[in-house]
Amino acid sequence: MQTMYQTMNDVELAAAIDDLEARVAEVKARELKLDMARGKPSPEQVAISRPMLDLLSADSDLTDGGVDCSNYGCFEGIPSARALAGEFLGVDPSQTLVLGSSSLLIEHDSVAMCWLKGTCGHAPWSEFSAAHDGARVKFLCPAPGYDRHFGITEDLGIENVPVRMTENGPDMDEVERLVAADEGIKGIWCVPKYSNPTGDTYSDETVRRLTSMKTAAPDFRIFWDNAYCVHDLYDEGDELLNVFDAAREAGNEDRVIAFASTSKITFPGAGVGFVAASPVVIKEIAHHLQAGLISADKLNQLRHVRFLPDLDAVRAHMRRHAEFMRPRFECVDAKLHEGLDGTGCATWTHPRGGYFVSFDGPEGSAKRVGALCREMGVTLTPAGATWPYGEDPHDTNIRIAPSYPSVEDLSSALEVLVLAVKLVSAQLALEERA
Ligand SMILES: Cc1ncc(COP(=O)(O)O)c(C=O)c1O
Fold it and tell me: Does some domain include residue 264?
């Protein structure tokens, strides 16, 4: 699709660039300092969980289902928290572990377990290369996706292979083709609901294909990070098929390791993290983690389950979060429509939950838009961050994180983004003619 600037004659284009440059100079003079980079809730939003902090005191009963939460023991997590983890991730509580405050760390440790020790009796992934003429272990990375996932596998020396993310999840034709042909592909990163950053939710067909596809690697694993499983903006949320049911039906129960946390429910970085897997694999993960952990912070788990005893309580709490998030997402959509409709310069997603909007400008624009926004006082997530190794092949994608700024600041930041996209698009149109 052509941008409006590509369709202008030379005189019109030069005038448009002059006008946009003048507007950029005006914005620079305002010395704005706005941040749309951070995927974290605003301070007022976090504050709705403060009452949780009053639920435990020196006089409180510190037991849960007979477990003394004030002492070592119960490595797998307290009974009420495991029941909640089971509800979050769609498994029996016995197939869960409730651990510390970060799901990302559990994800890291789960990949590291496969790398160092292997899984279900298969050789450690770290030995694959030597046994296969130097072929590398690879992971599929739906892109745009979550940079910290890609960072975990990159850090271990695993090769990150991008696959196109669609509105129904990863491009499954491509995924099936790749995993069937290459024994070195050992896993895929998935954020199946309100994906980071597109906000899209995997279709039932995608979930079924992922769990039933033929993989050359017998120890292929789906890392199912359901970080946004309860993060609906509207009463009617996206529905996600139960991945464990689908995997069991396909006879691939051991293929899935699922994660979630309360980071964006209670306190980011101070919530509780959950992991779920088949009975065999969860036992394996527990065994691996127990080498380095006597028991997690059960008092924090207790505080959480007293505040959010079941999924209904979680949903009620999330409706309060949505009151902060909804106007911000609606502001993003309205401002982008207002500024860019009819220009042919951009497309963006329309999530019904989660934390991000994914924005695409013309080819070769994203890095320049990021730099221009920075000059105008607006910080965006670095362009390229949503792709493995920070390399967006077409340099189009920008992750918009609307949660932290006030609606007023967000509105100003989006005006700056729109202006930057227009100027860069016009400059690209001019450069094409040179
Ligand atoms: C998809 C996804 N997974 C995990 C995390 C981090 O979760 P935690 O704080 O539980 O480590 C984030 C944070 O933005 C995320 O977007």
Answer: yes
Q: CA 225 to CA 149: how far, in whole Å?
A: 9
Determine whether the shortest distance from the Cβ of 263 to ligand 1 is under 6 A.
Answer: yes
CA distance linking residue 267 with residue 308, whole number of Å: 13
Any atom of ligand 1 within 6 Å of the Cβ of 146: yes
Q: How far is the CA of 386 from the centre of ligand 1 (A)?
A: 14
Domain residues for the domain of 376 are: 10-45+315-433
User: Which letter, b or e, does each residue of 188-223 get, where b requires 16 or more Cβ atoms within 10 Å of its Cβ?
Assistant: bbbbbbbbbbbbbbbbeebbbbbbebebebebbbbb
Residue 191 shares a structural domain with residue 165: yes
How far, in Å, from the CA of 73 to the mean position of ligand 1? 27
Instruction: Provide the 8-state DSSP code for 314.
Output: H
Print pLDDT tens along the chain (434 aa): 799 999 999 999 999 999 999 999 999 999 999 999 889 999 999 999 999 999 999 999 999 999 999 999 999 999 999 999 999 999 999 999 999 999 999 999 999 999 999 999 999 999 999 999 999 999 999 999 999 999 999 999 999 999 999 999 999 999 999 999 999 999 999 999 999 999 999 999 999 999 999 999 999 999 999 999 999 999 999 999 999 999 999 999 999 999 999 999 999 999 999 999 999 999 999 999 999 999 999 999 999 999 999 999 999 999 999 999 999 999 999 999 999 999 999 999 999 999 999 999 999 999 999 999 999 999 999 999 999 999 999 999 999 999 999 999 999 999 999 999 999 999 999 999 98
CB count in 10 Å sphere of residue 292:
7
Do 170 and 280 fall into the same domain?
A: yes
2: in domain:
no
Q: How many domains does the chain divide into? A: 2
Asked if 263 and 128 sit in the same domain, the reply is yes
